[in-house]
Amino acid sequence: MSQTQLSADQILEIAVESLEDVKGDNITVLNVSELTDMMDYMVICTGTSKRHVNSLGQNVVEHAKSKGLQPLGSEGRDMGSDWVLVDLYDVVVHVMTEEARSFYDLEKLWDIKPEQR
User: Fold this and answer.
1) Domain limits of the chain?
2) How far apart are CA 74 and CA 34, in angstroms?
3) What tens digit of pLDDT does each residue of 28-51 get?
4) What angle do CA 24, 28, 33 make, to 5 degrees?
5) Is 30 helix (H, G, I), strand (E, B) or coil?
6) Closest CA to 2 of 57, 39, 50
7) Which residues sit opposite 94 in a β-bridge?
8) What kind and span of H or E run contains 55?
9) What pLDDT, on a 0 to 100 scale, did the predictor assign at position 4?
10) Cα atoms in the 13 Å half-sphere on the side-chain side of 71
11) Class of domain 8-116
């Protein structure tokens, strides 16, 4: 459970809204609460380029902060990265280029049926 006053579902909504605001593609939500204690949801989104991936990750961080949620951390937020991760306590957001998403195939790795948004 998070150290915030927000529920996992509220954090999930913040994450998805922030990705939709910057035109994230193929936003997928995986409920992993039965598989791990580390998080309740994993959000996976595709960006059209490395610059778009960076912008999407940055928007998640900024939108979370504007709602009073300080992210635990983020990785890959530079212009050369094809994968950005933002840790929002009970929700972990992965933003990837199409190539990286196909290569790592997190949906298959976690082997659960995703919810499409």
Assistant:
1) 8-116
2) 24
3) 999 999 888 899 999 999 999 999
4) 135
5) strand
6) 39
7) 44, 85
8) helix 50-66
9) 63
10) 23
11) alpha beta
Query: Residue for token digits 């380029």?
Result: 49
Handedness of CA 37, 38, 43, 45 (dihedral sign): negative
Res 2: pLDDT: 45
Query: What confidence score (pLDDT) does residue 1 get?
Result: 40
Instruction: Identify the pLDDT of residue 80.
Output: 79
Report pLDDT for 35. Answer: 86
User: Rounded to two decimals, what is the model's pTM?
Assistant: 0.89
Q: What is the dihedral of CA 9, 15, 22, 80, to 10 degrees?
A: -160
Q: Counting every residue, how long is the chain?
A: 117
Strands 41-47 and 91-97: parallel
- Segments of the chain scoring below 70 in pLDDT: 1-4, 79, 111-117
Q: Which amino acid is at 52?
A: H
Given its phi and psi angles, is residue 67 left (phi above 0), alpha (psi -120 to 50 degrees) or beta?
alpha
Tokens 């937020």 found at: 77
The identity of residue 20, as a single letter, is: E
